[in-house]
Design brief:
Blueprint (H helix, E strand, L loop, with lengths): L1 E7 L20 H4 L9 H8 L11 E9 L6 E2 L1 H6 L6 H4 L3 E2 L13 E3 L5 E5 L4 E2 H8 L16 E5 L3 H13 L3 E5 L2 H10 L4 E5 L7 H9 L6 E6 L8 H6 L4 E4 L5 H52 L6 H16 L3 H13 L9 H4 L7 H7 L2 H9 L9 H6 L20 H16 L10 H10 L7 H13 L1 H10 L5
Parallel strand pairs: 8-9, 8-10, 10-11, 11-12
Antiparallel strand pairs: 1-2, 2-6, 2-7, 3-4, 5-6
């Protein structure tokens, strides 16, 4: 097995290969001990020695050694042992190996390979002096801060804790993991920062001043519902109640520790969730755009059918637009949902589309229709529903198209539905349709005056029309007729 060692050139030669177990296992042990790292890659050695801190200055000269190691050497301790036993906190990031005792000294010259007495390892010396950037370029490592974990650098993590020491520790830990990290000790400042800057994940201390973690989350959720939040607690007994976590949509919490293995797992899981949500959002946006284009194309094709009907029947010209807007007006007075208002709007526009299946001589007849001709006319709701049923986007308006000629007393068509059997929105459109018929000038008669129209609606209450809807519409005619007039003037009937 080959391990690498990178050391500062100005270190005494005898210190180059003296790996040992640190006596102090607290966070930052690599600073408190004269750390010697043996690792599978140079980049991991550099991280362990924290040389990356000085990388931008490019002032340090280093030596690189390749060490051929016997994996069965009892003196060699693997990174798994170091990490799991809590001896080296970040061994899982650097994958470094340590020796229990001092390595047997060897003499070496430049480019000379020397073998130790016990033949456990071979030291292969590189060039005597190299700049850090030179090493990185030679080894093809790239930017030290973005190597190996470059995919993480696109994710921004914000940590908020009123203890500066915790922020410093998290900074070292998360930057080594490749994340873009920001640490703040003031929770109020953090809230303002989140308002103006994007972060993918928030690490938040629970017990802080002047605001506790749950109070911070409550403020954040007022303007940001998507931020992934992990709560940090000094002790599991101090964690907020489960009800609070659910209410504030906190994704998880972790007990504070000088070992970050559990926290790292939670962060990695959180980042995966963030990435999945990014992908889902992008897919949904693409699908929505595609569906919108398809919907628009189909709408245009149906509009063509509608305009064809209007070309066949001069009465229909403007009629559907007015019925649509009258229906929407009634729906708004009733306080219906936006979804139902939209159904009334589209349903009104296409309620007579089935007239395309009615012969021209019947549609354009000046006199009274015969019984057979009237039967042909009565087919148009069924024809219209059939035409629109070929596209799923019109499924919600099919009841309007098919049943807007049903009567409340059961004497309508095409299925002679009665009372509550008639779909509610179809009952609304029936009123709008009849009103426009009464107030539109036809070849064989003039439009009815308003007082006569009101009289007819009162007379047909409970027979032709739903009594409650009839009462509402009469009230509109008597007290809000200017809204009706505005619609009438907008779409003047053409004969």
């Amino acid at each position: 097995m080959i391990l690498y060692h990178v050391t500062l050139f100005n270190k005494p030669t005898q210190e180059i290969l003296i790996p040992r177990i640190p006596g102090d296992t607290s966070i930052g042990e690599e600073v408190k001990t004269n750390r010697i790292c043996l690792a599978p890659s140079i980049i991991q050695c550099l991280r362990a020695l924290e040389i990356y801190k000085y990388f931008q200055e490019d002032t340090l000269d280093v030596k690189v050694y390749k060490i051929v190691v016997d994996e069965n050497d009892e003196q060699l301790i693997s990174w798994e042992q170091l990490y799991l036993n809590g001896l080296v906190d970040d061994a899982a990031l650097t994958h470094e190996y340590w020796y229990k005792s001092k390595l047997i000294p060897v003499e070496y010259n430049e480019y000379r390979i020397s073998e130790c007495v016990k033949k456990r390892y071979i030291i292969i010396s590189s060039k005597e002096k190299m700049r850090i950037k030179e090493i990185i370029e030679t080894m093809g490592i790239g930017n030290i801060q973005n190597a190996e974990n470059s995919q993480n650098s696109t994710y921004k993590i914000l940590a908020v804790d009123d203890e500066a020491g915790i922020i410093d520790s998290l900074s070292i830990f998360l930057k080594r993991s490749g994340y873009s990290f920001t640490g703040i000790t003031d929770p109020v400042e953090a809230i303002e920062r989140i308002k103006t800057e994007h972060f993918d994940l928030l690490l938040l201390d629970f017990i802080m001043t002047p605001l506790h973690g749950d109070q911070v989350v409550e403020e954040i959720r007022k303007f940001n519902k998507e931020l992934y939040i992990l709560l940090l607690t000094g002790h599991k007994d101090l964690a907020p109640p489960l009800e609070t976590i659910r209410r504030l949509d906190i994704q998880g919490y972790c007990e504070k520790s000088d070992k970050f293995d559990q926290l790292l797992l939670l962060i990695e899981s959180g980042i995966k969730s963030v990435e999945q949500m990014r992908q889902i959002k992008a897919i949904n946006e693409k699908l929505a755009d595609t569906f919108k284009q398809l919907e628009q194309a189909y709408m245009e094709s149906i509009q063509t059918v509608r305009y064809t009907v209007e070309a066949k029947d001069t009465y229909t010209r403007g009629h559907s637009d007015r019925v649509s807007e009258y229906s929407v007006l009634i729906g708004k007075k009733l306080g219906l949902s936006d979804e139902d208002i939209n159904r009334l709007k589209i349903g009104g526009l296409f309620h007579d589309v089935g007239k395309i299946g009615v012969p021209d001589n019947i549609l354009q007849k000046n006199g009274k229709l015969s019984d057979d001709e009237y039967s042909e006319i009565k087919n148009h709701p069924t024809i219209g529903a059939h035409i629109l049923s070929t596209a799923s986007i019109f499924k919600d308006i099919l009841p309007i198209v098919k049943y807007h000629h049903e009567r409340y007393d059961g004497r309508g068509y095409p299925e002679m539905l009665k009372g509550e059997e008639i779909p509610y929105l179809a009952r609304i459109t029936a009123i709008a349709d009849t009103f426009d018929a009464m107030t539109s000038k036809r070849v064989y008669r003039d439009s009815l005056p308003l007082d006569r129209v009101i009289e007819e609606f009162k007379r047909c209450r409970g027979t032709q029309f739903d009594p409650e809807l009839d009462d509402l519409f009469v009230d509109i005619l008597e007290n809000d007729y200017e809204e009706i007039e505005e619609i009438k003037n907008k779409y003047q009937a053409e004969i």
